[in-house]
Amino acid sequence: MRKIIVILSLFFLASCSEENKIEKKFVNPFEDSGKMHNEILDIFYSKNQVNSKASITEKIKIIDEYFINEKGYKFSFSEIINSKSNLSSYFETLNSCSFNYEDGYNLLNELKENSEISINEFNFANNLLMLMEKNSSNSNSIILNINELEENILNNTNYSSEEQEKFLNVLAITKYSIEYWNNNSSKTNSKGMPWYVKDSVGAMTGMSTGLVGYATLLAGPIGGSLALIGSAAFSSMI
Predict the structure, then answer these.
(1) Which DSSP string corresponds to 142-165?
(2) Which whole-number Å values give the CA distances from 207 to 24, 189, 216, in the listed order?
(3) Tens digits of per-residue pLDDT, 126-159?
(4) Fewer Cβ within 10 Å of end Cβ, the chain: N or C?
């Protein structure tokens, strides 16, 4: 009897061990970027309604105040974006409430043609946008695909560490944006496109080589993440 108990105990422990292996999931090290993005939106929408027509200056001011007053950083989002004079045209596009998938693809192509993003960054962003368009009626499918992408990115030796960081930030922000807008009564714009797509493209725009580089120089490692968070949050302020 004692031998049977010992054998059963060992079997139970082995089963638990296998179960733990199965349940273990990859955790994006940049999850906080998604959380910060949503916190900025909470602040904005506590003062504004969807389609509020808030100015670009007002939106950037809210992001600045969040970074400085809420998080205690010694710099602002406006300092980061002012380093790139050609960003204004991109932000004008992202500020449009009628932003659609075609606008997203055009913006990414413009970034590539202006050598603002690498080929890897363009392909990553373009594929993510296609994924969201293909699954526009099934956000759960998008999240499942993103979960797989997150783990694959760190195992892809074709990506530089900087590219991996950017991609994981964009994916974290996209997931949290999906969650945010799924809990909002106004989920899509006048073109029927989910708002989270606009947020995600905003984060992709933040991948701009010079923008992330300057932000990192200004604020250290966190700077690159803040450039993407700010760009996405700006796009989310409808």
Answers:
(1) HHHHHHHHHHHHHT-TTS-HHHHH
(2) 30, 24, 12
(3) 999 999 999 988 999 999 999 999 989 988 989 9
(4) N
CB 207 within 8 A of CB 121: yes
Distance CA 205, CA 50 (A): 22
Are 48 and 54 in contact by the 8 Å Cβ rule? The answer is yes
Q: Name the residue among 101, 106, 97 with its Cα closest to residue 189.
A: 97
Report which of 115, 60, 129 is spatially closest to residue 92, judged by C-alpha positions. Answer: 60
The answer to whether 151 touches 8, Cβ cutoff 8 Å, is: no
Residue pair 203/236 in contact (Cβ under 8 Å)? The answer is no
Query: Which residue is listed with tokens 């700077």?
Result: 223
CA distance 63 to 24: 35
d(CA 20, CA 12): 12
Cα–chain center distance at 34: 6
CB atoms within 10 A of CB 183: 9
Q: What are 25-74's pLDDT values in tens digits?
A: 778 999 999 999 999 999 998 888 776 778 888 999 999 999 999 999 88
Contact 129, 112 (CB under 8 A): no
Amino acid at 100: N
- The two three-digit tokens of residue 108, written as one number: 């990414």
Could you tell me how many helices (H) and strands (E) the chain has, helices first? 12, 0
